C-alpha cells in the first residue's frame, strides 16, 4: 500500500505532544472522518458541501477533502492504476487523520473504489472515528447526470481505468450510512448523516 519500504521509516520517532486532546475540548465536539465513497456523479461532493454548511450552522468545526482537489495538488503525481489509487487514498487518510487530531470533523468525498483501500483508510483513522457513507447511484443514473462529461469520454475510450466502466467499484457491504441518491434529495441525504452523528453522540 505504501510506496516506501519499512526500512525508510526506522529512524522516524513520533514526538509525544503534551496536549493532543486540547483542541477537542476547546471545540466541544467529537472529531470524526465522514468518508463518502461512490462512483463519479453519484453526488458525493454536492452532499459534502451541503453537509459542511449544515454542520457549521450547528456550530461545528469542519473541513472538506475532495477527490479532484487532492488530485490537483497533494496527489498530482499519481495516475489511476490500482496502485496509484491505493496511494491516493492512503495520503488522503493520513491527512484526514492529522486534521482529526486537531479536533475537526473531516468530510472526505472520494470515489475510493476498492474495499481494501477503504478498510486501510479506516485502520489509519481509527474505527471509532471513521464513518463510511456510501453515496449510491446506479451507473445509468450517474451516466445521465455526467456533469463533467467523464462517462462520455470513458465510453469513447478517451479515459482509461475509469471507475464503473473499465475499472471495478467494490460496493460497500456494511457502511455506517447508505444514501440512495436516486431517491433521496441532497437535503434528505444530509439529514440522514446528521441523524447518524446525533445518535452516535448520544451513545458517546
Tell me about this structure.
With 204 residues, this protein is an alpha/beta fold. It is 42% helix and 13% strand. A five-stranded parallel β-sheet has the order 2-3-1-4-5, sandwiched between helices. Helix 2 crosses helix 8 and helix 4 runs parallel beside helix 5. It is globular, with a radius of gyration of 17 Å. The model has no long low-confidence stretch (mean pLDDT 88).
Task: Summarize this structure as a short list of keywords or feature phrases.
about 200 residues, 5 strands
Which range does the strand content fall in?
A: 5-15%
- The quaternary structure here is single chain
Number of strands: 5
Uncertain spans, ≥5 residues at pLDDT below 50?
A: none
Taking the alpha carbons of the first and last residues, their distance comes to 32 Å
Can I get a quick summary?
The chain is of the alpha/beta class and 204 residues long.
List the helices and strands and how they pair.
Layout: H1 22-27, E1 32-37, H2 44-57, E2 62-66, H3 67-71, H4 82-101, E3 105-109, H5 115-125, E4 130-136, H6 139-145, H7 150-155, E5 177-180, H8 186-202
Parallel strand pairs: 1-3, 1-4, 2-3, 4-5
Helix pairs in contact: 2-8, 4-5
Amino acid at each position: 500500500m505504501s510506496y516506501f519500504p519499512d526500512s525508510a521509516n526506522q529512524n522516524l520517532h513520533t514526538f509525544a505532544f503534551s496536549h493532543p486532546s486540547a483542541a477537542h475540548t476547546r471545540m466541544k465536539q467529537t472529531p470524526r472522518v465522514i468518508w463518502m465513497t461512490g462512483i463519479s456523479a453519484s453526488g458525493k461532493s454536492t452532499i459534502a458541501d451541503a453537509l459542511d454548511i449544515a454542520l457549521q450552522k450547528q456550530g461545528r468545526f469542519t473541513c472538506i477533502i475532495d477527490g479532484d482537489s487532492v488530485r490537483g495538488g497533494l496527489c498530482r503525481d499519481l495516475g489511476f492504476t490500482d496502485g496509484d489509487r491505493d496511494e491516493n487514498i492512503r495520503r488522503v487518510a493520513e491527512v484526514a487523520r492529522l486534521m482529526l487530531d486537531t479536533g475537526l470533523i473531516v468530510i472526505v468525498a472520494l470515489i475510493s473504489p476498492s474495499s481494501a483501500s477503504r478498510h486501510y483508510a479506516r485502520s489509519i483513522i481509527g474505527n471509532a472515528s471513521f464513518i463510511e457513507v456510501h453515496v449510491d447511484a446506479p451507473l445509468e443514473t450517474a451516466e445521465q447526470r455526467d456533469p463533467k462529461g467523464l462517462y462520455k469520454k470513458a465510453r469513447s475510450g478517451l479515459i482509461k481505468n475509469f471507475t464503473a466502466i473499465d475499472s471495478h467499484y467494490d460496493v460497500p457491504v456494511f457502511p455506517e450510512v447508505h444514501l440512495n441518491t436516486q431517491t433521496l434529495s441532497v437535503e434528505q441525504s444530509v439529514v440522514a448523516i446528521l441523524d447518524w452523528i446525533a445518535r452516535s453522540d448520544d451513545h458517546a
